[in-house]
């Protein structure tokens, strides 16, 4: 695979990007996640992903649950490659877990993968049975300003919730 303008150290562990023979797995697959080096580790900045087509299964009924998943993080040395993230999120399609578990699993897998300075994951699930569930979780490196940021954002989370018009 050729990544124009990048040497081997800049490519990180990327093997899926540009691959025309992508296999879409239907089972939870955290090992599919890939990283590449952050070229600006001394800069603090947010990277945000929006996944409006997230699907998982209710662990009790097996019925599908649909959500938009928002992932925001401040990278340290490594960043998650977007195609691998897309395939990883797709792998929840047949995964049975409660909404709260899904967002926490996603966050923990991304922490393990890239050790960000700060990360938050917010799931906005479509209503089923007349009730929508919007779990939010976050993490900042313990003992740093990022841990303080995590507490601040968590304690002030959703102070001004949007109007829900049946999504």
Explain the overall architecture.
By secondary structure, this protein is of the alpha+beta class. It is built from 4 helices and 6 strands; from the N terminus they run αββββααββα. The protein has helices at residues 8-11, 82-90, 99-114, 145-155, and strands spanning 35-37, 47-57, 64-74, 78-80, 118-125, 136-140. The strands form 2 sheets. A 4-stranded antiparallel β-sheet has the order 2-3-5-6, sandwiched between helices. A two-stranded antiparallel ribbon has the order 1-4. It starts with 7 loop residues before the first helix and ends in a 12-residue tail after the last helix.
Question: How would the blueprint of this fold be written?
Answer:
Elements: H1 8-11, E1 35-37, E2 47-57, E3 64-74, E4 78-80, H2 82-90, H3 99-114, E5 118-125, E6 136-140, H4 145-155
Antiparallel strand pairs: 1-4, 2-3, 3-5, 5-6
Give the structural class: alpha+beta
**Major sheet characteristics:** 4 strands, antiparallel
Secondary structure: helix percent: 10-25%
Total helices: the number is 4
Summary, kept brief:
It contains four helices and six strands.
Key words describing this protein structure:
167 residues; alpha+beta; two-stranded antiparallel ribbon; 4 helices
């Amino acid at each position: 695979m050729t990544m124009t303008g990048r040497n081997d150290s800049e490519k990180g562990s990327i093997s899926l990007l540009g691959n025309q023979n992508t296999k879409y797995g239907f089972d939870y697959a955290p090992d599919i996640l890939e990283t590449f080096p952050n070229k600006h580790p001394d800069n603090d900045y947010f990277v945000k992903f929006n996944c409006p087509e997230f699907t998982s299964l209710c662990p009790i009924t097996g019925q599908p649950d649909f959500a938009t998943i928002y992932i925001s993080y401040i990278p340290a040395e490594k960043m998650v490659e977007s195609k691998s993230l897309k395939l990883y999120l797709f792998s929840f399609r047949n995964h049975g877990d409660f909404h709260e578990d899904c967002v926490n699993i996603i966050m923990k897998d991304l922490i393990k993968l890239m050790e960000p300075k700060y990360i938050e994951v917010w799931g906005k699930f479509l209503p089923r049975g007349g009730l929508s569930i919007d779990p939010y979780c976050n993490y900042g490196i313990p003992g740093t300003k990022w841990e303080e940021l995590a507490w601040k954002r968590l304690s002030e989370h959703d102070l001004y919730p949007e109007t829900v018009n049946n999504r």
